[in-house]
């Protein structure tokens, strides 16, 4: 269901971009003072700005998730260590149970009457 929603939103955004580009083909003077003056379509400026914003947002999201990923790695190491410890303890319990099963209880001394 999540994939369907993703593709519907993606299709809607692609449609919006195509309509925006088709309705805004007029050139706009872009002055990169003091170096260059360019005439570029309005939709190109808007799309480059949106792409720049997307990249900044993606970088911020990645940086925010860094601590979560680091904590996840730490917890995975602790889980693996606990699993190894549990296996070792289970082996010790099995050894002790085997020793108890093999142990013989001496018979009580006979009482003389």
What does this structure look like?
The chain has 113 residues and is mainly alpha-helical. It has helices at 2-23, 42-102; strands at 27-32, 36-41. The protein has a two-stranded antiparallel sheet. The mean pLDDT is 90.
Any chance you could write out the topology, listing elements then pairs?
Blueprint: H1 2-23, E1 27-32, E2 36-41, H2 42-102
Antiparallel strand pairs: 1-2
Helix pairs in contact: 1-2
Brief rundown of the structure:
This protein is mainly α and 113 residues long. It has helices spanning 2-23, 42-102; strands at residues 27-32, 36-41.
Report the structural category: mainly alpha
Strand count, sense and closure of the main sheet? 2 strands, antiparallel
Mean pLDDT: 90
Which regions are unreliable across 5 or more consecutive residues at pLDDT < 50? none
Rounded Rg: 36 Å
Apparent shape: rod-shaped
Give me the count of strands: 2
Lateral strand order in the biggest sheet:
1-2
Distance between the termini: 87 Å
Beta-strand proportion: 5-15%
Total helical segments: 2
What percentage of residues falls in helices of 4 or more residues? over 70%
Q: Write the element-wise H/E pattern from the N-terminal end onward.
A: HEEH
């Amino acid at each position: 269901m999540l994939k369907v929603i993703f593709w519907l939103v993606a299709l809607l955004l692609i449609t919006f971009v195509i309509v925006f580009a088709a309705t805004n083909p007029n050139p706009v003077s872009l002055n990169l003072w003091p170096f260059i003056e360019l005439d570029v379509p309005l939709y190109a400026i808007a799309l480059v700005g949106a792409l720049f914003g997307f990249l900044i947002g993606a970088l911020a999201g990645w940086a925010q998730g860094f601590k979560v990923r680091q904590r996840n790695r730490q917890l995975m190491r602790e889980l693996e260590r606990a699993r190894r410890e549990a296996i070792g303890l289970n082996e010790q319990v099995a050894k002790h149970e085997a020793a108890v099963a093999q142990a013989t209880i001496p018979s009580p001394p006979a009482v003389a009457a």
